[in-house]
């Protein structure tokens, strides 16, 4: 299959003999043309009621044929290769109410077999995007990604599996059906990963496919997988439901309504955190009132014999998948809920992590069983934050990076670092080419490559203001290079939640290595580099605002090679928010504590050896600090230093490189000295004064500072 294109069609459901269009979906066909017709066939089942020919007595592996007139149309020119910074991922524009309204139509019996479909909201993915196959829960509608369609459709070719409500395909038949699609995709693009997303029952399905195909590059994502069915509340009830009187059976849908998910989290999906609390509560109540009538619709329409069949199917699926976990070689990401009333998902995630060879877990303590339909679990954000997105066998920090979307920026800006941002009220200054200092970031070159080189404040607190401000004010994506430990999953966490380290990766941070710096500069990125590294960020008492840089020019020659513009900058304010009371030397004098530090740092990666000078003494620890009533962070970006056209003189002469290195260092020191002096003139240095001004006059970023 040379290529796969799509055509927009009307999905129709059957109501006796009538065919009524309900909502728009997109069906894929193999080949290089798109076909449009009102008579559609999905994997052997025509939507006009006709039965298509089956291959080998079972369901075909593709979306069947589209009958009718054929219109040849090239889509090559419409495919984009990248996304803009702060792109619209559509998260929050669709709600759970939309899901229930669409699912109510799709759940109706149509007499057809299982089939793949692609919602039109997914649109056209980026060039060379991998395929994502979604396998649904036991109801089988296939619309559980409704909230995520637009975002996922930008970076994946999304296909969702629909299993009709009255379908009786056994579990192994479903496994073979998905497996055929996986093998066809792998044959078409052997160097691309294939993403398999399984929700509840679908988790058993994708694990079974992964176990049967260990040689294929698969990324398996499980949302509260039903592999824990034998330990769930449903398992002992199954024999009772088979003999339950009809008048008592009618109550089951109402019980399942409250067990399936968290209605509050469902209703919160489209509520902006920037709204005042009163408006948030009002909108939450309105959403709940609109949502509650829909919660049992999908279960109410399932006949008794069908529900019992599906529960038995779930039992066999869990047994099949669990017996083959040892054969799973795929990369696995498990999303577990802390408020799942149907399955013990938290415990199951830990079991899978200890059983599978390459498994990552992210726990969402407030979510229920239907995590993909609830607030707080943006699937694409989780994939990015856990480092699971790639277009080939190995992840590339440049070509595989997806810039943050507007919804991610708002969440990170307001929720993740919102309190720190409010407390420190950062004031940004930059220097124009003529040497004039101005408020804001107007002096930063728009075109890369740009290397931002500066001072690392205590515990790197300034990073959480710097990167968001570049996005907010200049729409510039700054890629920070960080110590690998900062981006590593916290060891020993029984239920790791989506953490600050994950958010740093979402916002573009990568481990600091020569190859990563090389690749970022070659891609003309804006790169944030701290030559002082961890040693400077974890400095000792009395070393505030002291540059602890290596003796050698680690970054100057790299910048010159690509003609990058070096922008030196200084930051001050750490002494306005906290006092360092226990540094490394103090902690190492305390029994037990010193052993804990040695044990924690024994196996850490050493980025520099002793030849680099004092900066190589980069023991990682948590210093003892005493918080203060917050002052303010100040940033000054110095006059840009051009290296374009100077590659030969800098790369061939170490003395020239050293002079540029010392000049950059002195500019950082000058920026720090300038800010330390000028901040005394700021009438809004104190948080109280800034808060009053903000309440009366303007947003936080518009609070005045000193005149430069």
TrEMBL record:
Q: Would the keyword NADP be found if you checked this record's keyword annotation?
A: no
What InterPro entries does this protein map onto?
AB_hydrolase_fold, DAGAT, Hydrolase_4
UniProt cross-references to Pfam families, sorted A to Z: DAGAT (PF03982), Hydrolase_4 (PF12146)
Please name the SUPFAM superfamilies in this protein's record.
alpha/beta-Hydrolases
> Which key words tag this protein in UniProt?
Acyltransferase, Transferase
Task: Give the Serine aminopeptidase S33 domain ranges.
Answer: 179-374
Q: Which family does it belong to?
A: Belongs to the diacylglycerol acyltransferase family.
Q: What is the name of this protein?
A: Serine aminopeptidase S33 domain-containing protein
């Amino acid at each position: 299959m040379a290529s796969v294109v799509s055509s927009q069609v009307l999905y129709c459901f059957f109501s006796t003999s009538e065919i009524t269009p309900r909502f728009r979906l997109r069906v894929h066909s193999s080949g290089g043309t798109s076909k449009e017709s009102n008579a559609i066939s999905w994997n052997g089942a025509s939507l006009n009621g006709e039965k298509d020919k089956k291959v080998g007595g079972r369901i075909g592996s593709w979306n069947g044929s589209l009958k009718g007139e054929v219109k040849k149309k090239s889509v090559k020119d419409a495919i984009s290769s990248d996304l803009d910074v702060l792109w619209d991922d559509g998260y929050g524009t669709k709600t759970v109410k939309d899901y229930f309204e669409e699912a109510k139509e799709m759940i109706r019996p149509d007499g057809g077999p299982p089939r793949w479909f692609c919602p039109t909201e997914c649109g056209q993915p980026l060039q060379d995007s991998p395929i994502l196959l979604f396998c649904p829960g036991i109801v089988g509608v296939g619309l559980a990604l409704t909230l995520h369609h637009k975002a996922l459709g930008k970076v994946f070719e999304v296909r969702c599996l629909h299993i009709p409500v009255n379908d009786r395909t056994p579990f192994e038949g479903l496994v073979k059906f998905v497996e055929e699609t996986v093998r066809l995709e792998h044959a078409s693009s052997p160097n691309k990963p294939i993403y398999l997303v399984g929700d509840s029952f679908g988790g058993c399905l994708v694990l079974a496919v992964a176990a049967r195909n260990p040689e294929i590059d698969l990324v398996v994502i499980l949302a509260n997988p039903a592999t824990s069915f034998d330990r769930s509340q449903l398992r002992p009830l199954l024999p009772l439901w088979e003999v339950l009187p009809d008048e008592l059976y009618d109550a089951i849908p109402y019980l399942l309504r409250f067990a399936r998910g968290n209605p509050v989290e469902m209703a919160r999906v489209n509520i902006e955190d920037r709204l005042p609390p009163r408006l948030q509560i009002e909108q939450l109540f309105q959403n709940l009132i609109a949502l509650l009538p829909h919660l049992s619709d999908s279960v109410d329409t399932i006949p008794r014999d069908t529900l019992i069949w599906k529960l038995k199917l779930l039992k066999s699926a869990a047994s099949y998948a669990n017996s083959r976990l040892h054969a799973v070689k795929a990369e696995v990401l498990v999303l577990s809920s802390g408020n799942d009333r149907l399955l013990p998902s938290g415990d199951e995630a830990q079991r899978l992590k200890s059983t599978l060879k390459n498994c990552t877990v992210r726990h969402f303590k407030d979510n229920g069983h239907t995590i993909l339909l609830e607030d707080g679990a943006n699937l694409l954000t989780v994939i990015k934050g856990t480092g699971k997105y790639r277009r080939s066998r190995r992840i590339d920090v440049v070509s595989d990076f997806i810039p943050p979307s507007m919804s991610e920026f708002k969440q990170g800006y307001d929720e993740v670092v919102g309190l720190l941002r409010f407390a420190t009220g950062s004031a940004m200054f930059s220097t124009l080419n003529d040497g004039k200092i101005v408020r804001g970031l107007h002096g930063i070159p728009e075109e890369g490559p740009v290397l931002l080189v500066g001072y690392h404040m205590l515990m790197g607190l300034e990073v959480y203001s710097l990167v968001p401000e570049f996005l907010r004010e200049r729409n510039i994506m700054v890629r920070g290079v960080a110590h690998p430990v900062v981006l590593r999953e916290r060891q020993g966490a029984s239920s790791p939640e989506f953490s600050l380290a994950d958010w740093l990766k979402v916002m573009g941070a990568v481990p600091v290595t020569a190859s990563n710096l090389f690749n970022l500069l070659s891609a003309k990125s804006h790169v944030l580099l701290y030559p002082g590294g961890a040693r400077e960020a974890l400095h000792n008492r009395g070393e505030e605002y002291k540059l602890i840089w290596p003796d050698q020019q680690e970054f100057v020659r790299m910048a010159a090679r690509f003609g990058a513009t070096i922008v030196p900058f200084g930051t001050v304010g750490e002494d306005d928010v906290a006092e360092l009371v226990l540094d490394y030397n103090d902690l190492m004098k305390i029994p037990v504590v010193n052993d804990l530090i040695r044990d924690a740092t024994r196996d850490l990666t050493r980025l520099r050896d002793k030849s680099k000078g004092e900066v190589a003494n980069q023991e990682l620890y948590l210093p003892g600090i005493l918080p203060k009533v917050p002052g303010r962070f100040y940033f000054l970006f110095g006059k840009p230093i051009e290296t374009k056209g100077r590659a030969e003189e800098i790369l061939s002469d170490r003395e020239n490189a050293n002079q540029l290195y010392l000049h950059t260092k002195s500019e950082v020191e000058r920026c720090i000295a300038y800010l330390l002096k000028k901040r005394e003139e700021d009438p809004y240095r104190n948080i109280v004064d800034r808060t009053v001004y903000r309440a009366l006059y303007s947003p936080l970023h518009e609070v005045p500072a000193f005149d430069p």
